[in-house]
Design a protein that fits this description.
Elements lengths: L3 E3 L7 E5 L17 E5 L5 E5 L1 E2 L7 E5 L9 E5 L9 E5 L1
Length: 94
């Protein structure tokens, strides 16, 4: 489990996620034309943001740099385990 601290209004914070298939194998993103991350905020609204692949994509890593307005709510949201996601844990914006 990964715990990270985020703060309301943070910008430029890098979030990374490894994309895996249902068997736990890393997905090669070399030919990906668009990648997204989906977040559930503390009030349970959902935000989809455009991420990017760097380093060629064979490592399956999607990155996103927070922008103004991305982290706009204070509170804690326990992230639910999602198939294909290496990131699990509690995320808190203060």
């Amino acid at each position: 489990m990964t715990n990270i601290a985020l703060h309301v209004g943070d910008t430029g914070t890098e979030l990374r996620n490894v994309v895996k298939d249902q068997d736990g194998n890393i997905v090669d993103l070399t030919s990906a034309t668009a990648v997204y991350m989906v977040f559930t905020k503390p009030d349970l609204t959902v935000a989809q943001v455009t991420g990017f692949v760097s380093g060629g994509g064979s490592d399956g890593i999607v990155r996103y740099l927070t922008l103004a307005g991305t982290l706009d709510q204070e509170g804690t949201k326990d992230e639910r385990e999602r198939p294909g996601s290496e990131r699990r844990g509690n995320h808190r914006a203060r």
